[in-house]
Structure formats: structure tokens, C-alpha cells
Specification:
The protein is an alpha/beta fold. The protein has 15 helices and 4 strands. The chain is 51% helix and 6% strand.
Length: 284
């Protein structure tokens, strides 16, 4: 325990000598995307939150790191995925469709910014042309999988992933392990997916109640349009989408290449740009 305390003391001493704003992200992959490929020229210290002695990591550690820094007089901020709200069962905010109202809530304080989309990976999926270019760079087998422009997934796939979002919400509601990560490539009908979920003891009544909220995210938009995709994909599992597109998996991980292409084409999403601008103002 003494060694752990000494390590913390050394870490805070090191930070106090760096005249930079510390920006904590949930994972090393997030740091690679945000800090190494998009905003590498900023005078920030981008860091992965890592894990504590009990194995807790991700969003929980971002909150802890920022609080610890504040207690030690060190300026830092955090950027966390929207799905932290699922974990914490903050249902009203999780199902909030108005991005302006969503951002104004700041449930974890002004130093913690909550993304309006499921996770960082979702911001790699907002430019279908870049995704198409990425697919063209992959193997011939992967190029054979065609999806309609101007959206990266077809409507049936969007329906399936929306159902999985609702299923994960039900799982969190009842304190159970979520199912969406392991079912990303489910390739049967939505009705068959519902049957599969029922076999996993997920209440279809609860699922339908969640779906009423989920459907509001793209309400009024023409299905299959880019506007429909942009709005509905806010609550779809980003890694699951990349898996379906064969751009992320055990053997192939094209997230960093996608991030670089987005930077090269000046297509970083405005939301992320605005958060970086806010962080600059802290140092001003």
C-alpha cells in the first residue's frame, strides 16, 4: 500500500511541473485517436485513464483521475462515452434526443464532457465516403460487401443494432451483463433477434418500452438518408458497427487508419472540435 501511495505522490509531483492541461480518455485506443491522430498539435497532455488496483477502468477511472487531480491542485478534464449513462442508469439523459439540452446537463460536473454518441468509435462513422474509401483499401473479400450510400449500414442492420441498444438498456436496468458486444454480427431478421433475446431472459415488454425511446432519435427523418443515420447512430454501439463493416476485430483493426483519413480530409466532427476549443479556453 505504501508503494502505491508513493507512486501516486510521484505522479502528482510530475504533473505539477507540466504546464499542460491533462485530458483523460477512457482507453489507450481513444488516446491514440484523439491525442495522436486528431489533436496532436495541441498543448494538452492526453492520457488514457488506465485501471485501478481493482481492475476498474474506462469511464469510472476518468472521473476518478479528474477528481484526484482537482484534490491536488492540478488542472484536468475528462471526455467520456455516452454509454456511461447506461451504466449509471441515468435514463432521462441517456434517452435525450436534443443534443443542446444533453450537453447542458453535465451530470458529472463541468470538467467531464459526455459525448452525445455512444463512444469515440461512432465519430469514425459519420462520413460514408471515407468509410467507402476505407473498404476499398481492404481485401477483395471485404470489398464484395456492399451497402447503400449515403449510409454505411442498411436499414435492416440499423434496426438490428437499435434492438441491441434496447436490449443492453434492459440488461443495465436489471443489473445484468449487456449482450450487444457479442451479437454485433447477428445476421438474421429482427424478429429472430427478438426471439434470441427472449431466450437470454430479456423481457420483450421491457425491450419494447426501450424501443419507444430509441425510435425518437431519428423521428421525422427519411429512412435511409444521411440525416436519419446521423441521428439514429448516436445511440448505436460504435464498435459493433465497425465489426459489421469488417473494419474492427481480432485480426483487423482499422480504427486508427480511419481516424487519420478523417484528419487528412478535415472531417473531424464539430462536437469534438468544440470540446477541444473549450479545453483551450481553460488554459487561456
Amino acid at each position: 500500500m505504501a508503494a502505491f501511495k508513493d507512486k501516486n505522490k510521484t505522479e502528482f509531483t510530475e504533473k505539477s511541473y507540466l504546464s499542460r492541461l491533462f485530458v483523460y480518455l477512457e482507453s489507450e485506443e481513444d488516446r491514440q485517436i484523439i491525442g495522436e491522430r486528431w489533436f496532436f498539435d495541441e498543448d494538452f497532455e492526453f492520457r488514457s485513464s488506465g485501471h485501478d488496483a481493482n481492475g476498474a477502468g474506462g469511464c469510472s477511472m476518468v472521473l476518478k483521475k479528474v477528481q484526484d487531480d482537482e484534490d491536488n491542485g492540478i488542472e484536468s478534464v475528462g471526455l467520456v462515452d455516452r454509454d456511461i449513462l447506461l451504466k449509471d442508469q441515468q435514463w432521462d439523459l441517456w434517452w435525450e434526443t436534443d443534443d443542446i439540452k444533453f450537453k447542458s446537463e453535465q451530470p458529472y460536473g463541468e470538467k467531464i464532457k459526455v459525448l452525445t454518441r455512444w463512444e469515440i468509435e461512432n465519430y469514425l462513422l459519420l462520413e460514408p465516403d471515407i468509410i467507402a474509401e476505407m473498404k476499398a483499401d481492404c481485401s477483395p473479400k471485404k470489398r464484395s460487401i456492399q451497402r447503400p450510400a449515403p449510409i454505411p449500414l442498411d436499414l435492416d442492420e440499423i434496426t438490428l443494432l437499435t434492438t441491441l441498444t434496447c436490449a443492453d438498456a434492459v440488461c443495465h436496468q436489471h443489473g445484468n451483463k449487456k449482450v450487444g458486444d457479442n451479437m454485433a454480427k447477428f445476421n438474421k431478421t429482427n424478429q429472430e433477434l427478438r426471439g434470441n433475446l427472449k431466450e437470454k431472459n430479456i423481457s420483450l415488454n421491457d425491450l419494447d418500452a426501450m424501443k419507444q425511446h430509441a425510435d425518437k432519435f431519428s423521428e421525422g427523418e427519411v429512412k435511409g438518408s444521411k440525416e436519419h443515420w446521423m441521428k439514429q447512430s448516436r445511440i448505436l454501439n460504435g464498435k459493433a458497427i465497425l465489426k459489421r463493416l469488417q473494419l474492427f476485430g481480432r485480426r483487423d483493426d482499422h480504427r486508427f487508419t480511419l481516424a487519420s483519413k478523417i484528419y487528412d480530409k478535415n472531417k473531424i466532427d464539430e462536437e469534438i472540435e468544440n470540446y477541444i476549443k473549450e479545453f483551450r479556453e481553460i488554459l487561456a
